[in-house]
């Protein structure tokens, strides 16, 4: 595979992102390696081609935000908002991810091997997010579509004001948010979970060890009897 | 925004390089805090009978050429304080062998425009307006030596850009705090502390948190107990980094709204608002890098 290397200690990020936006798409399928990210913000944000980008180290805020088609691997941790508003493709964080990972993502797959911070998958709109560790409080807040899979634990107010997204958690849940409830896992949901575990490299993990959480749908329309749940 | 940075060296040999390692950390947080910067460094304590204060002359005209020796000579003449001075431009560390309050009161009479920014046996504090690079160069931060230090780059949001509203803030002796965030109830804290005789130097919310926590320590709380009471009383979004002669402590509010990241090796513990400020540290690629959990207390011993 054709490969291009950038060193952010020597090349400004703006040049690297310009290359990824304008030159690289003509050579779709090539691998682009980015050394010394050193926590810079918005690395590989706004990609719109089937590129394979590898970030060798810790990324700052909004890494791989708005991704379409590309596969971005971060061999380190990611700051706030990694893969925010992703449309398609795949983002893989080998370390931990800070707050709001995968926020508002419409499509694609976000894999986080370590823990994710607060508000993971907030307002999720269709993407799949698989977290190998635990997620912080308010995760999947107002999530509308897609799946959040958590192999570890979840913090407080999981799935607060949830719409139609599915949340699978293997560990403990500190508390559920308003209108989020445990649901029986049917064959269809088990198949979705098994497929995501497979894609995330967790094929050895038994889907039956997870619990499924979803919306109780009592907040869809205001009803005074629900006032206490708001 | 604001940026916080902290560094505690475990390996004694690194004490010589403390400031040198810290300056790029502060400069890395310039975008988070371009208007003022400050640093508190903890060194080996003075002998039991001596105290030192950090005095700032920046509110005087011709501050860069302030005659610190004349101040110390007058102090020794008036109070027999056995005082000595080490000056760095507008800042000076004055050490002496009498009660700190007596010296503070004497300075207030001698030159009311001088500000005393810290008191103790271990702490030296420098803060001023300007970019982090300017302030670091002005006071020679790169040459600082010691066990640990606490630094801050400020983007003012709730009180004016002045040297005395820059961080770190101090209260009592040998205690300092830097803050990234904002408190919603600083005036309530002020009203709560007023009956205890606690007075404030500024209208800054961080000063309220500093004086509250120092008051709890003075009332006998261990640092962790004081921080636990802080969680109950201090309302807002914050990351606090605090220094005492023997400890560096970090807490985040329950919503973890304000960022923080820690890198720990056998040689040091380094804390910053963002990883950008840690990237230059030796061995950081093999460090244990983690994001502190909300409402958890992290305390490292110097």
Automatic annotation (TrEMBL), chain A:
Alphabetized GO MF terms: oxidoreductase activity
The highest taxon in the source lineage is: Bacteria
Tell me the protein's name: Probable protein GlxC
From TrEMBL, chain B:
Domain of life of the source: Bacteria
Q: Which molecular function term from Gene Ontology is one that the record holds? A: amidophosphoribosyltransferase activity
Q: E.C. number, please?
A: 2.4.2.14
Pfam family for this entry, one: GATase_6
Domain Glutamine amidotransferase type-2 residue range list: 2-302
Record keywords, A-Z: Glutamine amidotransferase, Glycosyltransferase, Transferase
Q: What InterPro entries does the annotation carry?
A: GATase_2_dom, Ntn_hydrolases_N
Name of the protein described by the UniProt record: Amido phosphoribosyltransferase
Q: Which gene encodes it?
A: glxB
């Amino acid at each position: 595979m054709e490969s291009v290397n950038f060193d952010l200690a020597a090349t400004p990020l703006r040049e690297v992102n310009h290359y990824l936006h304008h030159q690289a798409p003509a050579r779709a399928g090539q691998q682009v390696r980015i050394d010394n990210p050193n926590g810079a913000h918005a690395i590989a944000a706004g990609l719109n081609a089937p590129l394979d980008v590898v970030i060798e180290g810790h990324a700052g805020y909004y890494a791989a935000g708005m991704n379409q088609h590309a596969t971005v691997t971060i061999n380190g941790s990611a700051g706030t908002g990694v893969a925010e508003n992703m449309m398609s493709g795949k983002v893989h964080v080998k370390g931990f991810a800070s707050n709001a990972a995968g926020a508002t993502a419409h499509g694609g797959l976000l894999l986080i091997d370590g823990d994710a911070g607060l508000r993971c998958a907030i307002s999720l709109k269709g993407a799949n997010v698989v977290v190998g560790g635990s997620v912080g409080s308010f995760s999947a807040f107002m999530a509308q579509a897609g799946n959040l899979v958590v192999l570890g634990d979840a913090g407080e107010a999981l799935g607060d004001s949830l719409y139609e997204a599915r949340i699978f958690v293997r560990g403990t849940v500190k508390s559920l948010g308003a209108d989020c409830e445990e649901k029986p896992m049917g064959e269809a949901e088990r198949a979705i979970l098994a497929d995501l575990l497979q894609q995330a490299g967790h094929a050895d993990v038994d889907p039956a060890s997870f619990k499924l959480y979803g919306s109780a749908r009592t907040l869809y329309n205001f009803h005074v009897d629900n006032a206490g749940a708001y | 925004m604001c940026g916080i940075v902290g560094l505690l060296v475990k390996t004694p040999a690194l004490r010589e390089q403390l400031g040198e390692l810290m300056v790029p950390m502060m400069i890395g947080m310039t975008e988070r805090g371009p208007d003022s910067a400050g640093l508190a460094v903890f060194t080996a304590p003075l002998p039991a009978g001596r105290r030192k204060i950090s005095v700032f002359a920046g509110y005087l005209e011709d501050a860069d050429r302030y005659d610190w020796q004349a101040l110390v000579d007058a102090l020794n003449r008036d109070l027999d304080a056995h005082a000595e001075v080490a000056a760095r431009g507008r800042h000076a560390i004055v050490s002496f062998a009498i009660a700190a309050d007596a010296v503070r009161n004497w300075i207030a009479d001698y030159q009311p425009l001088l500000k005393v920014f810290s008191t103790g046996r271990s702490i030296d504090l420098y803060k001023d307006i300007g970019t982090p690079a300017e302030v670091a160069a002005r006071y020679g931060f790169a040459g600082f030596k010691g066990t640990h230090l606490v630094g801050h780059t400020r983007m003012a949001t709730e009180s004016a850009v002045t040297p005395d509203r820059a961080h770190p803030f101090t209260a009592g002796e040998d205690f300092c705090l830097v803050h990234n965030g904002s408190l919603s109830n600083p005036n309530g804290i002020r009203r709560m502390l007023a009956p205890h005789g606690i007075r404030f130097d500024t209208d800054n919310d961080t000063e309220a948190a500093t004086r509250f926590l120092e008051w709890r320590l003075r009332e006998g709380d261990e640092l962790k107990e004081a921080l636990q009471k802080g969680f109950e009383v201090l309302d807002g979004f914050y990351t606090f980094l605090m220094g005492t002669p023997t400890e560096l402590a970090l807490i985040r509010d329950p919503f973890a709204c304000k960022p923080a990241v820690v890198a720990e090796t056998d040689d040091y513990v380094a804390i910053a608002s963002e990883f950008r400020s840690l990237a230059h540290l030796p061995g950081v690629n093999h460090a244990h890098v983690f994001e502190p959990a909300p409402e958890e207390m992290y305390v490292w011993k110097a």
